[in-house]
Design brief:
The complex is a heterotrimer of chains A (about 475), B (about 90) and C (about 325). Chain B is mostly helical and about 90 residues long. Chain B is built from three helices and no strands. Chain C is built from twelve helices and no strands.
């Protein structure tokens, strides 16, 4: 069952993409069905990992790393599930969002390719396979960004592509060095073989650098705001919530799994510091932003920063429940942000379609016109700020307590400032939205668009927060590497 | 005499460095793309240099397959980048 | 003595390669840069041959220098010929020093890496499993059997790129230059290219060759045809084109899923049928790659490509929806 589910979650969207090229008229239906089926498969995978533990499958059953393995453990399966939930919601949204049949025909095949890339990446257990999935992810993301067909979108897409290719090549250079030294590309095999030596250190540095570009960590974040802001709304949701996250996932996997003997507390501290700068810089820029989507994009830069602050803590804390807690908190923050930011972008899309623009200062009256949408923005804002009962509240709580326990108290003011700034920029939007302006509208304006957004926001704010204990157990029991 | 593996690996590193530098320096998309391709060629060269096992033995076929994949990916990305550039130019002319 | 000659040859090759790379990267003239790049591609093909990678030499020549070169050449006119890119001297200095440091670090890593490796590579398992793989060319075995999943995703990458190229721009109308010389050459070259492509596809199972080289060569033939006879350009049936584009991945998936139902493992070929299955996949892949690369070069939307509503001929009349 598990064997099959792992394959189906990758193959179904791929088939869907091919079919939607041929039969573009039915592309929306094909996409919805494909994504729902893939969602079902991802649920099976999570359930399976929950019951039986981490799962590793060598495709073709070739011995000694000759082939490629797929693997699923708690971390990757949870991220996979989140990914499919966000994608499914955004798919429903997108079926109503695109009114131009031409854009629609271009969108669906690329969207499904994005799904293939995301799923293949999360389940990959081979270094070079990771590179190929990264490339597929990058190319489809860029193609989707360019779909807006505006000057800004094209410029952003070109920059995104150039820097993305650079990141992939730097990553690949690291892979080459790893193969040179250890003669295998299999992640599990490498986790046993890699020692701290010049070759692995340089390879580690290269791969980290490539992935930092892809995760948009300050100062390599400059490509993100324009790309996420000028892409179509469902694309922006996927980009901020998922595409950037999976790069962080790979980095985490490599750091904790493969290169755990190579990394140094200093390097972790460096990344943590960059993360801290990202939090403050991103939040500040978000506050200054005039446009809703640009604000959301900068907010992503900040939220990614939070994820990186976890790194020096995880490295510094001793193995055991405290380290596990920090790790799960990281996951919780990543998940919360994924749901919250995608809900936010989808809502921003609704506003943009309704008002014809997304300028924050001119949002007066939207609270009356689009009450559900503004409610969703408020909900996701709660999760972005980190108020209870959202998942990110717990995440930040553990971040703070972990900082004290590791003796790295200096992260705490950063988190505080970041949260304050987030409060400011969220309330700024709400302030304008509830301000004076024309029009009164029904509660549910564009159901197919608003309901998915609502569901996502609810996930972020309520479900994750309330369900976090199950998550804690799950991750602690079933993460491959946390058990040594 | 240094081994072929070392010589060509270092050549690969050299290409990588040259390409990287040019990628970061160039403004124009086309020149950046060329530099990225040179950078990629450097990485490929490192792979194939590792694979080379001397005159007698057969070379390691796995890096060959990997580089073949890499070449195809590179040409696809180049084609897409050029098309994006063309579209931007068309939009700028309007 | 022979050793010395080889070393001189190697060092010359490397120096030439680095020199070409350097001039390609540092020139500001677009035409010059592309030409040098193509030359570097050809030199790289020689290097691959020297390093006993004939599959790669073929691929680099056809895809790396050939198709890539053609793409870049046709893009030259879109760019001003002599734009000087000025970065501030400070940033340039930082970039220069950073890359220099990185190069030194990587060289140091390579030096250590080569000394430390115990020679354990994947070549032994590849060779030992070769009889079960269905082919005798080890590279093909890796590409289409052991690591077939990678190749599947790679085809997806190609498709994604082509889809973007096809939908982004209006169709190019600037291939109006042709000459009797080109047409005469084409009459000889195209059949030759097509036959060689078929040969490469067939022979890939036991000698250097395979779907990618064959597909690219076929694409080269098609491009040549379009260039030489622009007025007689065939308007292909768009549905046919779409099917040709997806048939590679589709066949791959079908075979993989069929094997999954038989052997409970995706893309695990039953050894007895492996050779035939690989050939089937490779043929479909060749067709898709050839279509993809040709369309990528020609660029732009074919007429009626986005005619999602079959009854609206008027859209087709106006050269595609905007």
């Amino acid at each position: 069952m598990m064997n099959d589910a792992i394959i189906w979650v990758i193959v179904i969207p791929l088939l869907g993409s091919l079919i939607s090229i041929i039969w573009s008229r039915y592309a929306s239906i094909i996409a919805i069905i494909s994504n729902l089926l893939a969602l079902a498969a991802s649920i099976i995978i999570v359930a399976n990992v929950y019951q039986y533990g981490p799962f590793n499958h060598a495709l073709g059953s070739w011995q000694s790393g000759l082939g490629i393995s797929l693997r699923a453990d708690a971390l990757s399966s949870i991220l996979l599930l989140m990914s499919m939930i966000v994608i499914s919601a955004a798919t429903f949204y997108a079926s109503a969002y695109f009114t131009d049949p031409v854009k629609r025909a271009r969108f669906w095949p690329l969207w499904l390719m994005l799904v293939v890339a995301l799923n293949a990446l999360l389940l990959s257990g081979d270094l070079f396979n990771l590179y190929v999935t990264l490339e597929l992810l990058g190319l489809s993301a860029v193609a989707l960004t360019a779909l807006s067909d505006t000057r800004a979108a094209l410029q952003a897409a070109i920059r995104y592509l150039s820097i993305g290719l650079l990141g992939s090549l730097v990553f690949l250079a690291g892979v080459a060095l790893v193969y040179m030294g250890y003669g295998t590309l299999d992640l599990v095999a490498l986790s046993h073989k890699v020692q701290a030596e010049p070759l692995s250190q340089v390879a580690f540095g290269l791969m980290t650098a490539g992935l930092l570009i892809k995760s948009a960590l300050f100062p390599l974040h400059f490509w993100l705001p324009s790309a996420h802001a000028s892409a179509p709304a469902p694309v922006s949701a996927a980009l901020s919530a998922l595409v950037v996250k999976v790069a962080v996932y790979i980095l985490l996997r490599l750091w904790v799994d493969v290169f755990d003997l190579v990394l140094t507390p200093l390097s972790a501290m460096l990344l943590g510091t960059l993360g801290a700068i990202a939090v403050i810089w991103g939040s500040w820029q978000a506050l200054q932003a005039q446009r809703l989507k640009l604000m959301a994009a900068y907010s992503t830069v900040a939220q990614i920063g939070y994820l990186f602050i976890f790194l020096p803590l995880i490295v510094a804390l001793p193995e055991g429940p405290v380290q596990d807690a920090a790790f799960t908190a990281l996951l919780l923050m990543a998940l919360t942000h994924g749901f919250a930011k995608s809900a936010f972008f989808l809502s921003a899309g609704v506003i943009q379609q309704y008002c014809g623009h997304d300028r924050i200062a001119e949002l007066g009256g939207t609270a009356r016109a689009l009450p559900l949408t503004i409610f969703v923005i408020a909900l996701s804002g709660v999760a972005l700020i980190g108020l209870p009962p959202s998942g990110s509240f717990l995440g930040k709580w553990y971040l703070i307590s972990g900082s004290f326990q590791a003796g790295q108290w200096w992260w705490v003011p950063v988190i505080a400032i970041g949260s304050v700034l987030a409060t400011a920029y969220v309330f700024r939007i709400l302030g304008y939205a509830f301000g004076p302006g024309e029009s009164v509208g029904r509660v549910l304006n564009r159901g197919r668009e608003e309901i998915p957004a609502l569901l996502l926001a609810l996930f972020a704010t309520l479900i994750l927060g309330l369900g976090s204990f199950e998550l804690w157990d799950f991750v602690a029991q079933h993460s491959e590497f946390l058990r040594g | 005499m240094i081994s072929e593996q070392l010589l060509y690996s270092l050549a690969g590193v050299g290409l990588f460095g040259i390409g990287l530098r040019a990628t970061l320096l160039h403004h124009m998309l086309l020149l950046r793309l060329l530099a990225l391709n040179v950078c990629g060629a450097g990485v490929f060269l490192i792979f194939i240099a590792i694979a080379y096992s001397g005159v007698e033995l057969m070379a390691d076929p796995v890096p060959h397959a990997l580089v073949l994949t890499g070449i195809v990916v590179a040409v696809s990305a180049t084609a897409m980048a050029l098309a994006l550039g063309r579209r931007l130019a068309a939009l700028n002319d309007e | 003595m022979i050793e010395l000659l080889w070393s001189i040859f190697d060092i010359t090759l490397v120096l030439l390669l680095l020199a070409l790379a350097w001039t390609t990267c540092s020139t500001q003239d677009v035409k010059r840069a592309v030409t040098l790049f193509i030359a570097m591609g050809l030199l790289l093909a020689i290097v691959w041959a020297r390093l006993k990678a004939p599959d790669l030499a073929l691929a680099e020549a056809v895809i790396g220098a050939g198709i890539s070169g053609a793409l870049l050449l046709s893009a030259i006119k879109d760019y001003p010929s002599n734009m000087v890119s000025h970065r501030s001297t400070l940033i340039e200095g930082i970039i220069n020093s950073l890359t220099l440091v990185l190069t030194i670090l990587m060289s140091w890593a390579v030096w250590h890496g080569l000394n430390m490796s115990d020679g354990v590579r994947l070549s032994e398992p590849v060779i030992s499993q070769l009889p079960v793989s269905g082919v005798s060319n080890p590279v093909t075995a890796v590409l289409l059997n052991y690591r077939a999943y990678d190749t599947l995703l790679e085809l997806a990458v190609v498709l994604t790129a082509v889809l973007t190229v096809l939908t982004l721009n209006e169709k190019r109308v600037d291939y109006e230059f042709s000459s009797p010389l080109l047409q005469g050459m084409t009459r000889w070259l195209v059949p030759l290219l097509v036959v060689t492509s078929g040969y490469l596809l067939w022979v890939g199972a036991h000698a250097p060759g395979g779907a990618f080289q064959a597909g690219a060569m076929l694409a080269a033939a098609m491009i040549l045809l379009q260039l030489a006879y622009p007025s007689r350009r065939q308007e292909f049936n768009n549905s046919l084109l779409k099917i040709l584009l997806v048939i590679g991945i589709f066949t791959f998936l079908l075979v993989g899923l069929w094997m999954m139902s038989l052997n409970d493992d995706f893309l695990a070929f039953t050894p007895a049928w492996a050779g035939t299955l690989i050939l089937i996949i490779e043929t479909a892949a060749t067709v898709s790659i050839a279509t993809a690369l040709t369309l990528a070069y020609l660029g732009g939307r074919p007429r009626g490509w986005e005619d999602t509503n079959r009854t609206s001929r008027s859209i087709a009349e106006n050269g595609g929806a905007g």
